[in-house]
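Consider today's protein:

***
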Amino acid sequence: MEGGAVAQKPIIASIIIPMMNEERFIGRCLETILSNDFPIEQCEILVLDGRSKDRSRKIVEEKAVKFPSIRLLDNPLGSVPTAMNIGIRAAKGEYILRVDAHSEYPPNYIRTCLEELTRTGADNVGGRWITKAGAESLVARAIALTTQHPLGVGNAAYRLGRGDCFVDTVPFGSYRRELFERIGPYREDLVRNQDYELNCRIRKAGGKIYLSSKINIVYFNVPTFSRFMRQAFNNGIYVAHMWFLNPASFCWRHGAPLLFVVGLLAGLGLSVFSTSFQTILVLVLALYFLTTLLASMQIAVRRGIKFLPVLPGLFLSYHLVYGAGTIVGLARYPFAKKAKVANVSALREI
């Protein structure tokens, strides 16, 4: 080589991080990625900023001075799917890893994702969530526990600590770049649930999604009850939009809160006309509250009796608000222009 120049190694992994107002988490997120045992010179870290109003951009810029593999890109629309699509178009790597700014990653994360993609032949590989509270308060810690129990999240394997199996979805995910040429990009009209819809398209095309026990991601949940409820409401709205856009994406754990709320409203209405429906309604509610109490006691026995007074109300509120959001989404979507569907504020509740 002329002048003793050293050939630059090709980029293998492109790590894409959507970001908006993540000053509390983005620094640590980047540190855990940078400390991975995969050669950093064969990675690029693309941080897509949705016009943050806090110190998020400055934190990334300071990191980029020390680590040239970090690139800060603009995401004018501010949503996760637009960030991912901008990042994929800009990426140079053979593999795409979607990383969340609200999380921390183990030292073998990049290497293990690529190894598991090769070993399993899956089109998407992801890991299990180790859910942490977004704050030290009792409510914040109870919220984290609620989202790790089947009564709160159904059969979402990555939330329940399962692994080494093919599943319907994984959080975030790692892909071969050519996958997006086959099945298309992220849907930009889905501010939320875009990962599940993408995985549905993968499965519909004959592909597989693998949940590996070798990959464990620390995820920080929302810190307050109000944000938990906003998250639930937005989840409900966009799961309904997802069903309209891709009917094959329907699954029972997404639809259960809707059935609960619709059944409750129907029962209340019918009870006005019949004492039989009053009896049925009372029995159903009694069964629900008994189930909720048992689930709360199960958690309290393992994690502390102090959570018992809080958990039943969290479960009930989450189910009601999620179901109400789904009703709003079903009612609103047919009359909404796609350009108006996206709600950028929903990005903050991830």
